[in-house]
Structure formats: C-alpha cells, structure tokens
Amino acid sequence: MIRFTIRRLLSGIVLLLVVTSATFFLAHAAIGDPTAGLLGNNATPAQRAALHERLGLDRPLLAQYWDWFSHALSGDFGTSWRNFQPVSDQIALRVPVTLSVVVSATLLAAVAGTAVGIATGLRPGGHLARVLKLASVVLFALPGFWVSLVLVMTFAVRLKWFPAVGYVPLTQSPSAWLSSITLPSVALALAAIVMIAEQLRNGFVEVNRQDFVRTLRARGLSSRRVTLHVLRNASPAALTVLAVMFVGLLGGAIVVEIIFNLPGIGSLTQSASQIGDIPILLGLTAVTVVFVVLINFLLDLVLGWINPKVREI
Amino acid sequence: MTDAALRAPGGPVRAERALWRRFLRRPLGVTALAVFLLVVLVGLFAPLLAPHDPNFVDFTLTQAPPSAEHLMGGDSAGRDIVSRLLYGARTTVYGAAIACLVGVGIGVPAGVAAGYFGGAADRICSWISDAVQSVPGMIVLLIVAAGTGADFTVLMVTVGAFMTPGYYRISRSRALAVRREPYVDAARVAGLTHARILHAHMLRAVHAPVIIQSALTAGVAMGMQTGLQFLGVGTASAPDWGQMMNDGFRTMGTHPLILLWPSLALGITIAALAFIGSTLADLVSVRTEPARRRRTAPAGGHAADAETPASSGALVHTVEQSVLRIDNLRVTYATAHGDKEVVRGVCLDVAPGEVLGIVGESGSGKSQTMFSALDLLSGDGRTSADGIWIGGREAGRLPRAERHALLGTRVGYVPQEPMSNLDPCYTIGHQLVEPLRAVHRLTKAQARDRAREVLLRVGITDPDRVMASYPHQVSGGMAQRVLIAGAVAGKPDLLVADEPTTALDVTVQAEVLELLRELQQEYGMALVIVTHNFGVVADICDRVVVMKDGRIIESGTVGQIFADPADPYTAELIHASQDDSESRDDLDAAWHEAGQKVHT
Amino acid sequence: MNKESAHVTTDSQAAPLLEVADVVVDYRRGRTTFRALKGVSMTIGAGECVGLVGESGSGKSTLGKAILGLAEVASGRIRFAGRDITHLKGTARRRLAADLQVVFQDPYGSLDPTMTVGQILAEPLTASGTGRAQARTTVAEMLDHVRLPADTVRRYPSEFSGGQRQRIAIARALVRRPRLIVCDEPVSALDLTTQAAVIDLFIDIQRETGVSYLFVSHDLGVVRRICHRVSVMYQGECVETGPNETVTRNPEHPYTQRLLLASPVADPARQAVRRRSWLALRAPATTPVP
Question: Which of A245, B126, B293, B552 could serve as B313's disulfide partner, Cβ 3.0–4.6 Å?
Fold first, then answer.
C-alpha cells in the first residue's frame, strides 16, 4: 500500500513535470512575446523592453521553466504577469466555484447514472433501456455548452425557474448557491449520467452472461442478492468512466462557466490566454493535473477494493 | 466444451461485406447517414447553394425575422443567416475531418504497434496516451488559439491530437486481442515478416472499430470546435456555427431564433454522427457477440423442419419414486433464422440415490436439458414441458419463488468450468457462507462452521486459508472442490454435475470423480452427470441416456448400454472413448501388411 | 507427392532431424520468474512422430513454442537438421519456415476470420516469393491432401466445422512441404468422433510425405494412436521417454502410471479394476490439494 502510494506520487510528479513543461514551451512558442498582449497595442518599445526584463523573459527558456517548476513543487506558482498578484491566490479564489459545479455534477452523475443503470440493467430489453440507449447516443456527443444553451433558453429565459447567470457563494446563502449552480451542474452532468448508466447496463448484460451468476442462482440466492453480486462485478467500468468524466468535466466547465457567467477558472483561463499571462495558465494546468492524479489514485483504490484481483497486477 | 463460443453464422468478413447492406436496412442509421451526407454536401457546395454573400451586411436585415427573401432572417450584424449556416457547415466539416485524420494518423499506428509488439514500446505509448488524457484540453486549445492568431487548421490539428488517445486505446486493445489469437503465431511460424503481419492481419482487425470511433470523434471534435468559436476563437471572414451561437446567445432574451438556427444545425449534425456510430457499433457487436449457448445442432434443428417430433427417452420410475422427472421437455431459442429447438422432447427420470449419466457430443442439448429443468437457462431460451417434477412436486407449475427455493436445498449444482463459476469479487468463504445464511437461515457462526466442515470433507486440508482466499488465488482443481462443497453444503437430494471434470487435468479429474462418488454414497444423493466421456459413465453411473441433436436416442442401464448398444452412434462414441484401441504400431503393421495403401 | 514414400521405421538414432538438449525456458510474471522447462532433452527422427504428454503447466506446449522460436530459450540447445536454431531471429528464423511448421489447438482462433481459406493457405507461399499461379496449384494440391473440396478456397473459416478448420490448419502447415510439424493439442478441442478422423488424417499425411511430428497432447489415448515414441512431461521435466507401447501400456515412472490409471476407460468392468489400481497408487496423504 505504501509502495503503491509512493509510486503513484512519483508518477504524478513526473506527469506534472511533463504536462506543465509541454504547456510552458507550447505557450512560449505560441504566444511569442507576451508583452504585446499584456501592455496593449499602444505601448512604446521602451515600455515593452522594461516589462520584458521585469518578467525575466531575457533568460533562457529552460532556466525560466526550471525556476517555475522548482517553486511550484513547494506550492509557489509565481505571480501573474498582468497584476503581479500571486497566481495561487487568484486560482484559490476561483477553484471553489469550479469545484462546486464539477463536484455536484459528478455526484449527480454518479447517483442518477447508477439508478438508471441498475433499472435498465435488470431489464436490458425494456422501454427504459431503449430510451436510455437513444439518449446516451445523442447526449454523449453533444457538447456541454450546447446543452447549457438549451437549458438556459428553457429554464432560465422561458420558465424563469433558475437565474440565467451569476454565482452566489455557499457561505452567503446555501439556497441561492444551490439555485445558481443547478443549471450548470445539470448541463455538465447530463452526458456523464447517460454514459455511466450505459456502462452499468452493458456491465450487467456482460456479467449476467458469466457462469458464476448461474451458480449463484443454483445455490438458491434471491434475485436481490444475485443483483448485488452482479452490481459489484459490473461497477468497475462505470467507475472508470466516472473518473474520466471528472477530468472531462473540468475542461467542459470552462465554457459552461462562461455561459452562466460563473467566476470560476473558466473565465480566468479565457482572459489569461487572451493576454498571454503564462504564469496563470501554467498554474491552472498544474491544478488540473493535480486533480487528475488525485482522482486516478482514488479510482485505483476503489477498483482494488471492488475486485481484489486487480491489486496484484 | 458446451461453452465454447459459437461464431455467428456467416462469419466476420461475410458480415463485414454485408455490414453496409445491413446498415441500410436500419431506418435510424439510414436517416442519420443521409443527414450527415447532406451536411457534407452542403459544406462542399456552399458557394453554389448560398442565396447571399454570408458576410454582406444589410442594416435593414439586422435581427430581422424570417422572410421569403431571408428564410431564417438576419443576425445582429445584418447578415443572412441561411447563407452563414451553409458556409458554417463547410467550416465545421472541414475542421472535424482534420481532427479525425490527425487522430487516425497518429493513434491507429501507435495503438496497433503498441498492442502487437508490447513491452517498452507499449508502456511508453500508453503512458503518453494517459498523459494526453489528463491534460486540460481546453486550456491548451485556448493557448494555441491565442498564440497562432487563431489559425483554424492548427487549432483543429490540436483538437485531433486530443482525440488521439481514443483511437490509440481501441487500436491497442484490438491489436492485443488479435495478438493472442493463434493465427498470428501461425503467421510468424509461416515466415511472415512483422510488417506483413501488421498489414495483413492487424489493420484488418482494427478497421471496423476505427470507423465507429471516427463517427464519435467527428461529433466530439465538432463540439470542441464550436465551443472554441463560441468563446471567440476563429477567423472573422469565414462564418462558423460557434460564432453564430455566440451572437444568438447575446440576444437570446429578445431574439431567440438567432440562437436557435445554429444550435439546431449543430445538434442535428452531431446527433446524426452519433447515430451512425451507434448503429454501426450495434451491427458489429451483433456479429462478434457469441450466440449465447445456442449451440446449434449440427444437422437441422430448425423448428420448421422438425414439426413437434415425438418425445424421446423413457420414464422408468413413478413420480413418487423419482427425485427428478422430466416429461417431454423442449427448449427453443429465437435466432435470426427463426426458432431453433435445441432440446426436442426429452423424457428422463432419476430415482433417489441413483447415478444417471447424460451423454452426448457438443450441441446435443444435454446441458440445456438440465439447465431448463432447474430453471437456470440464461439468455432468451424458452422452455416447455408436459411436466417437471423435483422431489415429487411439480416444479414446472410452482410459483417462481417457490421453484427457486428448491435450488440449494433439494438440488445442488456443480458446474463445468471451475474458475468462471466463482465470483471474482468475493472471498471463497463469503460465497460459501452467504447461501447458508440467506437460504438455510443459519447464523454467521453456524454457517462458517458448516462451510469449514464441507471444505474438509471435499479434501481441503486448510479450510480457513481457503475461505479467506479469493478465487484467483486458488488452482482449478481446488476451485472445483470448493464448488462441489458449495453444492453439497445444503445437503441436497439431487446433485446435478455439468461436465464436472472436463476442464480439469486427468489426474485431478480422477480425484474429483472419486470425491463425487464418495459424497453420493455418503449423502445418499441422486447424481446426474452430464458428460461427453463414456469413460466417466463407465466409472460412476448406474443408468445412462445418450443424446444427439436434442433427442434421446438410447437409454438403459450401464451394463446394458456398454454390452449391447442398440444405436450405432452409441457404439461409435463408446469406441472413440476407448484408449486401448490400436496403437500406432498396430496401425503401421496393418498398413505394411495391406501393401502400404493410404486409405482415404 | 513426388517425395519417396516415407520409411516409417524409427531408427531416429542415426541422424535425428530435431535434437533438443537441456533446454531451459523461464517465463517472467511481473517480478517473479517461473521456470517452465527445467532442462529438457529429446530427439525426433525423420518421418517419426514423437508424443509429448503432460498436464497443464507441465511445460509441454512451452517446448513446442521454444522449438518454433515463440518462446525465449534461457539455456540449452535446439538443433534442426544438424543446425543450431536455438536463438535464430529475423530473416534466418523466417527462412526456417520452409522446414518447420505448426498446427495449433484452437480451430477457431488459428485461422484469421477475415481471410478466405485460399488467402490463408497461399499466404506462407507468397510471403516466401512463390508466384501466384504456382501458389494456387500448390493450395489445390494441399486441399486434396487434407480431403477438402476444391471450392474451399473461396470460403471463409467461419463456414466450416471445427474438424474441417483443423484440416485447413493442417493444409496451411503443409503448403511449404516442411520436414517437421509441431502439433500443439491439435485434436483436443474436437468432438471424439471428429478426433478419430483428424488423427487418421495426420497418419495418412505422414505416410504420404514423410514429415515428422512433435505431437503435444494431454491425452494418452490420442498419443497412443498416432505416436511412435512418447515423452512424458511433469512440472517442466521429462520424466519418461520410450516406445509407444511401453509408455502407454506399461509405464515405469509412477507419474505416468498415475496418469494412465487416472483416465477412465469406457468399459465398466475394466474401469472398476483400473479405479482400484489408481486408488492403490494414489498418494498416501489422501488428497494432496493441487
């Protein structure tokens, strides 16, 4: 267990190194001279040169990156190039908003997906299963922002059930908070719900075909008990999808947040990329990668608990 | 053996060639394909089809409602929406095509190579693929968009790079699966180079899944593309749907139609792609799905050519005298070629303490007979019978719950393949204890004691260790003992063993047969052994029924059947199981004597 | 075939076609290694059929794989027609395909389902540079050899039964007219009645072409019918080698005796006797859990 954790930690750090360095060099290659974006078109060459030096852009790229990475490992992501505020402060301000949406979407997906998955898995030929199939095909492909637009048009603009835009912190008013994140969470969760339900349904069909299910029935176990066995065997695929979806939701949140005008990492990403604020972009990338590593670590723990066989591979 | 996957009739290539033909028979698939082709054509010929210049600004048209001249009205800048939609289709299709090409071009070769060669190449490629999947794609895309001055092609190449892991994974898993097939080893032994094997065998195997993946990928790429454009990434000169949606989004409160049109276009296109993909996936998976246990009787077996044949076999005991009695049992499966009857009117019975063998080759319906008698038939088989009695009660007419209550109490079941018959997620102890508690209402301690006791009885010397183990931690022979322990733990009157020794090594086989014999005598159980091996019958059975093509062709006591088989098929089977037939030396001697003629 | 009708006598000592000496094969499973073969030696003469009998995990299939170059040999030597082939790789190994062929157990997996039988059979020929027309003639000839109709070439493997597929696999092994075929459990996936026919086909082909077989099987009955000599494998070692009649009738090694007695015979009276002898021979600690 300790070995496993250490291995995971090391591989997570390597992943962080690879992904952030790739982002770093890509950003520098793509953006070129960031001072143009930061100062606007009216800046004089002298102003730009001054900023250039202040940002340390005259040093070799590799040295700049290493500087960033060694500080990042201790939690210091540097300062923004635009307002010279610490990156970690700005991200820490935004992350709770994004996490509210993404985590509630994930929970929604897990609960609703499991419920629908079990209902259709028990009757794979039934009407619900057929509807789910059609829904999953379409909803999986449709982008979250498209769904968001439809939801906003229907529930906010037409029915006025929810606010169309804006965010209320949980500490300010729990009910307003819930109401402000409901539509974005649903928009993000819909695809995940059908994916998880579909995985679970397929898992049920697959597991039901296995010999041990017949043997369990032959031992006289009730259908409810047999279903529990089947569910446990069918869940790894759905859980893996859930973890992958979580990563996807973090990315999808960027556009959805902009539609709902939520002050999460989405708008920060957009503005930082427009002006070429590389420290902010790197910080955002690093935070996302850390989440990914954490989620995958949790996933492996849960999968190992569900099916002990995977522990030994 | 009964479980060996039976490939669907026709086979893959036939099916693949017929795949498009079958695809065209699916209304949903055809509609989706037509819609998608329409979008592609519209994109290609947008300059010819568009009624107006998409960028021409006519201030009178600003946010105008639909009219005869402008079918969908005008946008916030006073441009014709229809024309912009048509040109937008061009952008969308072009972008999706680039993303798919990049994904296929990198992902498929890498995946096939990784799956085929394995080792370090596989580990490195898989790590990279996982790394790409954990990169926040949207951030990178926004960086690329900001830097390159939003060059659309570069942007879509980047989108394609994020699609690569999807292609990589399916190609790799297909290649891995094919790599394990003996025909690839055979090709290597036949002297084929790796390049030729990759080309001839591997690429063939991945091409259907890659097409399906492409339909999905194209849809997802379109979504990402429009999402970026919605955020303001894109060129002003070429109209695109995302930009149009953004325009509509800003005036959503007052002019919802402006948002509706591009949203509809995008939604319908992506849905069409998704349905193409899912229809194809359905068709392909139908062909790879092994026909579940529908072991076809080699000759005929169609309901059409076998119009309710008379029942076969014989009932030799009265209802009261038999622990199991089956009268005129039929099992039918619905197949693509009509109903297929795999058990065709079987009659048999077993007296308490009697050992009955049901013998036949694969596809004879022997296992199906017992499964349906116990109501353990999986899949969509239908059973009908004049009567099924278990322990003197007519099980066929009992309510489902009461019928199931007979299992585990009156009837025990020992399966064929030991490893696949234990739930891999639970310890062996749990699997033995659970039925004892749930069905036999024992307390936890009682159930554990009873489980330990039967494990000792079936020859497991350290029951506590075995109970704490998971199925993958024990050998096949041990697993079969555990299954036998589970079957007899409830002290049944009847034990049904389905090819209990077939999957085992010869020496373990003998041990298991010996164990079954001992248990049968000790508990005074009736035993039904389903087998293809007349050696097993000779070893343990009192009576035997011989099955072929879903019918009983002969039944009688063991002495009678071996001494004087009435049916030539029985005689042939018995002869084939005799390992003391002529040896190679005898055959060669005879051959030399006969003048070295090769018989054909 | 234009080759001389083979001599079937087993004077393999003269110049063995295949010579396996002290071969060791290790399999790596994660961090641990498992020794699948612990120094196995054997010979096969020209026109001879040698059986390799054992249970799962005995290493019998591994030996076949080592000979074919599909398993890495850790130590020891394999000589074929006087030439060391233990570690042949790449082009040299591919050239060996002309002399050394294989028939696998699984009649479903051993033929590429996406190719026609004609393509499958011609593949080894065209891969080695044979012209198309020549390949077609050879394929037709081979189909005739394995008693399949000529129109088989246009059909797909899935259209055939297990026994027919195994005939196709045999034809593929034969197309390059090899001197040795490794047969890895070639009949154990078939029904009993089909088994007998396929075994007879193996014998006929050996008589017609003089090819040698290494016949890997778990079934002493099958081996008895087809092999001239038999080696018995147990836990990576060869415990007994001898003429067919001896090994399958009066084996010396206790393991072989147990193996022989463990398999039930289709005759109630004789099986009762056999069972008693088996019980007497069974290891004293009643049931050593495997």
Answer: B552
Q: What is the DSSP letter of B395?
A: G
The two three-digit tokens of residue B178, written as one number = 């094919």
Angle at C62 between CA C56 and CA C63, to 5 degrees: 120
Task: Give the ranges where chain A is alpha helix by DSSP (H).
Answer: 2-31, 34-39, 45-54, 61-73, 87-122, 127-141, 144-151, 174-208, 211-218, 223-259, 265-275, 278-306
Q: Find out whether A255 and B227 touch, Cβ atoms under 8 Å.
A: yes
- For helices A174-208 and A144-151, what crossing angle results, to 10°? 130
Q: List, in order, residues 6 or more apart from B568 with CB less than 8 Å away.
A: none
Cα C39 to chain centroid distance, Å, stands at 19
Q: Which two tokens stand for residue C213?
A: 């077989």
What are the backbone angles phi and psi of residue C11, rounded to the nearest 5°? -90, 65
Q: Which B residues in the span 544-573 are in contact with A, Cβ-Cβ below 8 Å?
A: none
What is the least distance, in Å, from the CA of B432 to any CA of chain A?
Answer: 9
Q: Which two tokens stand for residue B92?
A: 């969308």
> Which of B360, B274, B419 is closest to B569 using CA atoms?
B360
Burial of B458 (0-12, 13-18, 19+ CB in 10 A): buried
Enumerate neighbours of C (3 or more CB pairs within 8 A): B
Are the Cβ atoms of C193 and B193 closer than 8 angstroms?
Answer: no
Band (B359; pLDDT cuts 50, 70, 90)? very high
CA distances from B518 to B514, B523, B525 (A): 6, 9, 10
Is the Cβ–Cβ distance between B155 and B233 less than 8 Å?
yes
- Of the candidates A29, A133, A149, which has its C-beta nearest B245's C-beta? A149
Mean pLDDT of A83-93: 86
Q: How confident is the model at residue B149 (pLDDT cuts 50, 70, 90)?
A: low
Note whether B404 contacts A: Cβ–Cβ < 8 A.
yes
The CA–CA distances, whole Å, from B473 to B178, B478, B479, B527 equal 27, 10, 9, 29
Using alpha carbons, select from B244, B253, B340, B267 the residue that is nearest to residue B297.
Answer: B340
